[in-house]
Every structure is written in structure tokens, then in C-alpha cells.
Amino acid sequence: MPMPRRLLRWVMPLMISLAPWLAHAQEDSSAEGLRAQYKTMAPALASNPFHRKLVLQSEEGSGKLSGNIYAVVDHPYADVASAFKLPATWCGVLMLHLNTKYCGVQGSGASPTLNVAVGRKFDQPVADASQVNFVYSLKAATADYLDVNLNAASGPMSTRDYRIVLEATPIDASTTFIHLGYSYGYGPAAKIAMQVYLGTIGSDKVGFTVTGKNGKGEPDYIGGVRGVVERNTMRYYLAIDAYLDAPSPQQQDQRTAAWFDATEQYALQLHEMPKDDYVAMKRSEYRRLIARQ
User: Fold this and answer.
1) Exposure winner among 131, 198, 223, 282, fewest CB in 10 A?
2) How far apart are CA 213 and CA 222, in angstroms?
3) Which residues contact 66 (CB under 8 A, 6 or more apart)?
4) What is the distance between the alpha carbons of residues 136 and 73, in angstroms, rounded to a whole number?
5) Whole-number pLDDT of residue 118
6) Of 47, 60, 68, 112, which Cα lies nearest the Cα of 86?
7) What per-residue confidence (pLDDT) applies to 33?
């Protein structure tokens, strides 16, 4: 039975916003392993269509979607590690996404929880959004290696086993190599909903991987679920970069504007709304977040 269009419009933004990363786990999860990855990817990091030192990958498996970014950020490793070993930093990053309506840290100690509300691309009450709870785990935080995991057992519809990973290691005194990954599993209900979305309101959206050229010699970009993963992978990477550029609470407006401007560099894939609408929406959501703390 086809999913009602009204329900589809509510469910799909939630599913999409939660699907940006690949936990493409390295066998050697260490500073040495990550630096070896950096050396392997050096040519692609230096020459790519993103005009950044960045490699983006995506995969579609049986009952699983994943996305992956490796990138060089122009910030010292000490700054990256000190920021992202704190659970609250992740809320600062997640809140930049259009679909994130609320993010708060609950609990303390080794395994606090990030309570995230995800909904539609307008200023939506938290009560009308869907809740996803990520358990935060700091796996490693040494002088040359950071490994942070966020895990959620379940998500909307029949999605499950979410895993967000951030690894980082210094390249030199002023730059850091990071790996941002995400993976999640899904069941029949989520698969049907995604197929309906991609056949209707999401049919013209594309990702970043070039699959060939059209009749005009222009690049053809990947669509479908891999396009979904790639768009959100880029959104979250840009959110990390924007946070590192403006990490203090007093810089919230600067961070929000910078994230939007960065996404507009890839307008074909990422444009969703005018800047004024986005900034106004985020200001409202941040005021609500502060009021609930």
C-alpha cells in the first residue's frame, strides 16, 4: 500500500537528516592508521572538484547505507581534540543542519546521551519532531589521536544501529586530518519510504559523485540513496568546519551564516532555502534550546 504523501513529507526529512556518514571502520584504529590513510589519499586530497582538501565516499549495501569523508581542516589538532571530546560540541554541530530542531546533552560521566529532535525544514515545535538518542563515547583522546563515537540503537521507521565516528590526527602544527563516518541499517518500512521519496519530491536531487557526462558534456551526478548520503555527509562536514571557525556561544550567528554560505558553494546539491529564512529559523531554534536548558 503506498505511503500517504502527507506522512512521507514528515518522515523523509527525518530519515535523510540522519543519513550522512559512513563508519567505514579502519582495521587499525590509531594515529598510525589514520596517518597511513592520509598518505594514501594525498593525491585525491590535493586535486578534487570540491576546492577543498577533501575526499567523499558513499556506499549502499544490503540493508545498510553509509557515507564517508576524509578531509584536512585548517585548525591545530589540539583545538580539534579539545572541542570534539566534549559532547556539547556535537550539539553545536548538529544544530546547524536544517532538520535538527533541538539537541541537548543528558547525563555525565563516560556515556552521556545526546537527545536530538529532527523534523522538517522550517521552525517546527520539538513536540512535533522525532527523538533520536545518541550515546556518546570517547574512545581515545591522546596527544596525536582522537576517536569519538555516537551510537543510537534505533531511529525513525525501521532504521537501526546508527554509528557516528570522528577520528583526528595532526598533520603539522596548524592542520589536522579527520575522518568523519556514519552508518545505519534499515528495514522494509524505511526502504519503501525512501523509494517513494526518491520517486516523487526527491527525484531531482543529486549527490557529488560523477557517474558520466550528459549530451552537453556536463557531468552527470549520482542520485538515489547514495545522493542522499553524499549531500548530508557534506552538510555535516561543513558544520564541523564552521564550528571550528567560530566555537564560542557568542559566535552563534557567525557560525550559522558561515555554514549556509559554505553550503551555497555546492548549491546544485545543497540549496534548500533563502539565507534569511535559514538564519531566522536557526535563531528561533537556538532561543528555544537555551530556554529548555
Assistant:
1) 131
2) 11
3) 21, 22, 23, 24, 58, 59, 60, 181, 182, 183, 184, 229
4) 23
5) 86
6) 112
7) 94
> Rg (Cα) of the chain, in Å, rounded?
18
DSSP-derived secondary structure letter, 4: P
If DSSP states are collapsed to H, E and C, what string results for 192-249?
HHHHHHHHCCCCCCCCCCEEEECCCCCEEECCHHHHHHHHHHHHHHHHHHHHHHCCCH
Q: Distance of CA 229 to CAs 6, 207, 275, Å?
A: 23, 8, 23
| Separation CA 222–CA 220 (nearest Å) | 7
- The pLDDT, as a whole number, for residue 293 is 74
- Calpha distance 110→138 (Å, rounded): 7
DSSP one-letter string for 99-137: TEEEEEEE--TT--EEEEEE--SS---GGGSEEEEEEEE
Q: Kindly give the pairing relationship between strand 210-213 and strand 176-185.
A: unpaired
Distance CA(191)–CA(199), nearest Å, equals: 12
Amino acid at 248: S
Edge-to-edge strand ranges of the sheet holding 64-73: 54-61, 64-73, 176-185, 160-170, 146-154, 130-141, 113-118, 100-106
- Please state, in angstroms and rounded to a whole number, the distance separating the CA atoms of residues 163 and 266: 26
Kindly report, residue by residue over 54-82, the tens digit of the pLDDT: 999 999 888 888 899 999 999 999 999 99
Q: State which H helix or E strand residue 147 sits in.
A: strand 146-154
Task: Tell me 152's DSSP state.
Answer: E
